Structure formats: structure tokens, C-alpha cells
């Protein structure tokens, strides 16, 4: 069966994990000049959400100049982070890597630890960039670095949404790397971890839960486990019926149909061979 659902990474600032704007800039009671900086950044993010990338880029350069003139170091860091996410969204991987690295350096020079979620968000995206640039060894090291810290946090009782979402995303992205390498057993483990976390965060009726069920069904097929293949794909279809606006639902239904057709063909041949014995 062809692997039908491909990872789509259209990263909005929120999905990318850009830092809380007013919190990072320390503007609970902003002065007039700083208020204008916040407004400019928000306009840039709005352009990103509308896929108006050129306008977003221009607005971010205006914001960067404002932050530099104000000598607002946190503001500069934030603008770099949004710029990095914009570059990643447009698949400008070299540019995104350079900007994310600069953001990480600025954070850590300001006392942020390597296990802080802000650093782990960036580490995850650097791992994804390495994967897109086909440096799979570097990508694997990056994913495992993130998971080592995130798993420890969860084991120690962390229940905040940010940690859970970040861990789910890391497991998901790492699983897709393993899947491409044909490491089905390892990929299944990480897809299942992502699925459990996603269900915990969003509940069962959610697009990403359906996608992960489809992924687990696909891998089960490759592993030769017919029972689990049907189990996961049937569940994906059943939940997907409650999500009629889901873009990938049609592909999941096609996936499900392909499995049944192949199984019918297999068992028909098996019965024919048995009749010859």
C-alpha cells in the first residue's frame, strides 16, 4: 500500500511555537514606542496567517529596525524568531536554520537552559530542517535530544499543554523520518506515543488523531499485521466521519479501500491455492 498521508508543515507562528509576545517583550504596561513595536509584529504575523509572505517579510524588517533603535533585546530576539518561522514556512531552509540558531544563541546567552521548552521548540525545528536538507543523522540526533528532555519532563509529572504538544509533535516528526527509512517498528512506537498524547490534549475527535491512526494502520500493513491494519484504519474512518471539513479524509478512505482490495485479492489467491492441495 502506498503511504498516502504526507506530513504537511504549514507553520503558523502559533504552531511554530513563537514565544508569547507581550510576555517575552515584558510589555504589561507598554510605553508608546514599544506599543508600536508590538503592533507592527502583530501585523506581520497576520500577513503570515494570510499567506502574504512578502508583506510579512517587509513588516518584520520594519519591526526589527524599531526594536534595534529601542535597544529592546527581547524584541530583537522575538522578531528573529518570527523571521525564522516565516523562512521555514516558505521552505527557505538555510535562512531558517541561520535565524533559528541566532535565536537559540540569544536565548541561552540570556540564561535560558537547554531543557527549556523555548529552546526545545527551536531544536525540534532545526532537526526538521536537517531532515529536509537530507542530513538524516543530524535530524535523528536533534529529535532524540528533544525527546530525552521532554520524556523526562513528562515522567517527572509535567502536565502543561505546551510540553505535551511539543512531545507529540516531536514523536510525530521523528516517526515520519523513521518511516521514510523503512524502520517500521521504531516508527510505529513513536506514532503511537504521538497518538496517545494528541488524544490526551485534543480528545478523540480531532484531525491529527485521525491522521495518526491512518499512519499506524499504514505501518501495520507494512509489518504484515492485517488485524491491526483494519483496526486502525476503521477507527480513522469512523472518527473522520465527524470531521467532514478534514482535507485528508478522502485520502484516508482511499487508503482504507486499497487495503481491503489487497486483502480480498490475497485471500482469494490463498483459497485458490488451498483448493489445489
TrEMBL record:
Pfam families: TPR_12. Keywords: Mitochondrion, Repeat, TPR repeat, Transit peptide. This is Tetratricopeptide repeat protein 19 homolog, mitochondrial. One of its GO terms (biological process) is mitochondrial respiratory chain complex III assembly. SUPFAM superfamilies: TPR-like. It comes from Diaphorina citri. It is found in: Mitochondrion. The gene is LOC103511402. Belongs to the TTC19 family. One of its GO terms (cellular component) is mitochondrial inner membrane.
Amino acid at each position: 500500500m502506498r503511504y498516502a498521508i504526507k506530513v504537511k508543515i504549514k507553520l503558523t507562528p502559533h504552531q511554530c511555537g513563537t514565544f508569547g509576545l507581550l510576555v517575552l517583550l515584558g510589555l504589561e504596561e507598554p510605553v508608546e514606542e514599544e506599543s508600536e513595536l508590538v503592533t507592527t509584529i502583530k501585523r506581520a504575523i497576520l500577513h503570515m496567517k494570510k499567506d502574504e509572505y512578502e508583506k510579512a517579510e517587509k513588516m518584520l524588517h520594519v519591526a526589527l529596525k524599531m526594536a534595534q533603535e529601542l535597544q529592546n533585546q527581547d524584541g530583537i530576539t522575538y522578531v528573529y524568531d518570527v523571521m525564522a518561522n516565516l523562512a521555514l514556512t516558505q521552505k527557505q531552509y538555510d535562512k531558517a536554520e541561520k535565524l533559528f540558531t541566532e535565536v537559540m544563541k540569544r536565548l541561552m546567552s540570556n540564561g535560558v537552559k537547554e531543557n527549556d521548552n523555548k529552546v526545545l521548540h527551536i531544536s525540534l525545528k532545526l532537526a526538521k530542517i536537517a531532515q529536509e536538507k537530507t542530513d538524516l543523522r543530524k535530524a535523528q540526533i536533534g529529535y532524540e535530544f528533544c525527546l530525552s528532555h521532554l520524556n523526562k519532563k513528562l515522567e517527572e509529572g509535567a502536565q502543561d499543554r505546551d510540553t505535551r504538544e511539543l512531545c507529540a509533535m516531536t514523536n510525530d516528526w521523528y516517526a515520519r523520518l523513521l518511516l521514510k527509512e523503512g524502520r517500521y517498528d521504531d516508527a510505529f512506537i513513536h506514532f503511537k506515543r504521538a497518538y496517545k498524547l494528541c488524544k490526551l490534549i485534543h480528545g478523540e475527535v480531532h484531525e491529527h488523531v485521525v491522521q495518526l491512526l491512518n499512519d499506524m494502520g499504514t505501518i501495520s500493513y507494512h509489518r504484515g499485521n492485517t488485524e491491526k491494519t483494519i483496526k486502525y484504519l476503521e477507527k480513522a474512518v469512523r472518527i473522520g466521519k465527524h470531521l467532514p471539513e478534514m482535507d485528508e479524509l478522502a485520502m484516508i478512505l482511499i487508503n482504507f479501500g486499497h487495503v481491503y482490495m489487497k486483502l480480498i485479492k490475497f485471500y482469494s489467491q490463498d483459497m485458490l491455492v488451498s483448493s489445489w492441495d
